[in-house]
Amino acid sequence: MSTTLTPVLTASWDRPDSFTIDGYGPYEAAKKALGMDPDAVIQAVKDSGLRGRGGAGFPTGMKWGFIPQGDGKPHYLVVNADESEPGTCKDIPLMMANPHSLVEGVIITSYAIRANHAFIYVRGEVLHVIRRLHAAVREAYEKGYLGTDIFGSGYDLELVVHSGAGAYICGEETALLDSLEGFRGQPRLKPPFPAVAGLYASPTVVNNVESVASVPSIIANGADWFAGMGTEKSKGFGIFSLSGHVTRPGQYEAPLGITLRELLDMAGGVREGHQIKFWTPGGSSTPIFTDEHLDVPLDFEAVGAKGSMLGTRALQIFDETTCVVRTVLRWTEFYAHESCGKCTPCREGTYWLKQVLKRLEAGQGTEEDLSTITDIADNILGRSFCALGDGATSPIHSSVKYFREEYLKHFEVGGCPFDPKKSTVWGDR
């Protein structure tokens, strides 16, 4: 059995005071960073190899380096805490159990990019998280870690916790910025990119919660320490969220490059008496994998080479009792509902994907419908205004690729073969 875990962000989660500033500690990493040159902080993060933990995997230090200096404009940091994708569930427990790692990361990041105002944009439905973030920010202000002349360095920072209204589209960074400015959350045309014209048309860095929360440990322990974990191009550790048909679901913090087989060993395997059928490596917007991919290293390059994306490391596990068609339909209904409607490929494409999948799941489709949904997906992929449309096509293409026979079985038997009334068709569960 593998025991490869690297508890850093999750190390104190079992402590009853983990969410308080007394349980967290005196922000030593921020104090150290504020004694460094801002460019040295950026270089340390570049050297660490930290890549965005929100899904895209873009090098974090490089993103910070895009901010123009000496431009005479205010700079902003915006933390994307609008975690809304089905299966993705790492940032919310992180903010609940260890909010001060995020607040300290905000201080270091803001200092590095020369920002004096920062925002945490958090999903509006998670009221318990919002309250905890407010409490953590209040504690930081009371200690003098936020506000004016932090640690006597002369650096000032104001941090605001902003609640969204529960729109998945606001997880897209430019839609988030529009929402933060008080407008309807819809993606902006790029370029210009946020690094040049972001919040209030000023240079802005938008980072994921886990990305920012990882920064204090890099400053405290050194770039080489972080780069010593993970793989050659996907360095460091990350939180892997196991959910679904697994014996012990939860958050497993491990080096990038660990395999699902190793994680399942630590999680007690698939639920007793069953076997894995398919799974997502990075949430519902990533192409699904099957049991033949159990030994694929979970890093950006290896997962990409096998036709999927590491994404947010949301490992949804489904056993043989699960209907692939019904699962893909449920995901597609979500994307159709959450489409902002700005662009035609996504607005119309997700709607029609949902209609055809409903027919297929009910056993009323034809083999031609499989060509129809893949054609629709092809016309969305790469043609939508933002990544929501592209993400909606991932379950379509991958499920037809790996489970075409199951799609055909639906209209052969006139319904879902996993329906208890038809269990003899597909085999008893």
UniProtKB/TrEMBL annotation:
NDH-1 shuttles electrons from NADH, via FMN and iron-sulfur (Fe-S) centers, to quinones in the respiratory chain. Its EC number is 7.1.1.-. It comes from Nonomuraea corallina. It comes from the Bacteria. Residues 325-370 form the NADH-ubiquinone oxidoreductase 51kDa subunit iron-sulphur binding domain. Signal peptide: none annotated. Pfam families: Complex1_51K, NADH_4Fe-4S, SLBB. Keywords: 4Fe-4S, Flavoprotein, FMN, Iron, Iron-sulfur, Metal-binding, NAD, Oxidoreductase, Quinone, Translocase. The lineage of its organism: Bacteria, Bacillati, Actinomycetota, Actinomycetes, Streptosporangiales. This is NADH-quinone oxidoreductase subunit F.
